[in-house]
Structure formats: C-alpha cells, structure tokens
Design goal:
242 residues; mainly alpha; 2 strands
Length: 242
C-alpha cells in the first residue's frame, strides 16, 4: 500500500513537471521569471534558519512564531490552488469556451509559479506536500468549477491580506503584496465569468471580511482561512504559536 501511494505521488509530480516545463504564454513566463529571481534572496535567508527542533507531529506543522511560518502558510494555500487549477486545465468542462480554457491554463501556470516560488524560497524549512480532497467539486460542470475557483481566489486574497500584518520583513511583505495582486486579478476574472460586470463587486465578500463601502478586499486571520480550506485538504495541518 505504501509503495502504491509513493508511486501515485511520483506520477503526480511527473505530471506537474511536464506541465511546468511546457511552453508558457509570454506574460506567464515573465511573471514566473520575476518571482524566481526575487526568490534567490529568500532561499539564502531560509538556509540560515534552524527549524529542525520543532515537535514531531503527524501531517504538517505551521509555526507562526516567525516569518517562515507565514511563508509556509502561503505555500500551503498555493499548493491547494495549484492542484485545483491543474485538474481543471487538464480536463476543463466541455462548456468552457476556447478563451476560458486558455485563461484557466494561464491561471494554472501562475499558481504553479507561486507554489514553486515558496517551495524554493523556504528550502529545507518548507512543509511537505499536501494531499487534497476535491470530492465536493464536479469538475465536469462549468458552474461547479467557477464557484470553486471563486471561493479559492476570494479566500486566497483574504488570506494574504490577513497574514500581511504578521510579516516582520519588508522584503517578504513586498513579495506577498505582489502575489496577492495577481490573486485579486484572478478573482476579478472568475467573478466576471460567473456574472458579467461583477468583477469589482465586493458585496458578496462580506463573509470574508470585506468592507465594500470603503472599496477594500477582505482580510481573514489564518485560523479562519485554514478552517475553510480544510474542507479541501486531507493532510492534517497543525498550527502552533498563532
């Protein structure tokens, strides 16, 4: 059984590697290249941190005692988003238009780039890969896919906004700001697909803490975000020092 699970993980990694090495559209490639260059400084910083004295727990542990806990938190969320878009892009609903298929391919590459950025930046301090659970999503149905995409993007924006105050490094905060701006563009696009002209409508985001009268996106603390995201993650996520 163990060997079978290991083989499945290897097959998944190989599939993602082939996707990531595929020819990207120019804007996707430039975006990833920029994130990779910025990540060099983070990788160097991550190697200086000794994080091997943490208590042993099953699953993965997010330790919010420092910036690396916040970065791992973002890495966990990007793993979830990347897994979702890889599945959509590999077999989109039959009712997707050619333009929609192309855009979802593009978003897939963005999310893979974000995931790999955090993985490389954290180096040995990175948490392990998460096992996802998308059983509640009907990937053959356009409405189900779009609603799930909207939920993931809105949650991602609220998560970055809520976690920013926990970052002590201006460098990390700037990088997080660059990523959340891309996530917000995704959210606007998905929202417009669901209802044309609603790309900037924040009224339905009140549950995520949006103050639409002030034109502000939502902000959620990590405990609330993880409680929502947990419905799509099989791996146990332990949180300490929150």
């Amino acid at each position: 059984m163990k060997n079978l699970q290991e083989q499945e993980r290897c097959d998944t990694l190989e599939e993602e590697r082939s996707i990531f090495n595929a020819r990207l559209q120019r804007r996707s490639f430039l975006q990833y290249a920029g994130a990779g260059a910025a990540g060099i400084a983070l990788i160097a910083a991550g190697c200086k941190k000794d994080r091997h004295n943490e208590p042993m727990m099953s699953g993965v542990t997010l330790d919010f005692k420092d910036d690396f806990g916040v970065l791992n938190y973002a890495y966990a969320l990007e793993q979830l988003e990347a897994a979702f878009y890889i599945q959509v892009a590999s077999n989109p609903p039959s009712t997707f238009s050619a333009a929609e298929k192309a855009y979802f391919q593009d978003i897939q590459f963005h999310e893979i780039a974000h995931r790999e950025f955090f993985k490389k930046a954290l180096g040995p301090a990175a948490i392990g890969g998460l096992e996802v659970n998308f059983s509640s999503i009907n990937f053959t149905d356009r409405t189900s896919v779009l609603n799930a995409a909207k939920a993931f993007e809105d949650l991602g924006v609220a998560a970055y906004n809520g976690a920013g105050v926990r970052l002590k490094s201006d460098t990390y905060l700037t990088l997080a700001g660059k990523i959340v701006s891309v996530e917000a563009r995704h959210a606007a696009y998905i929202r417009d697909l669901i209802s044309n002209g609603s790309f900037a409508d924040l009224a339905s985001m009140n549950a995520l803490g949006a103050k639409d009268s002030l034109g502000l996106d939502g902000a959620l603390m990590p405990d609330k975000v993880l409680a929502i995201a947990g419905a799509y993650v099989k791996t146990k996520i332990n949180v300490i020092n929150l």
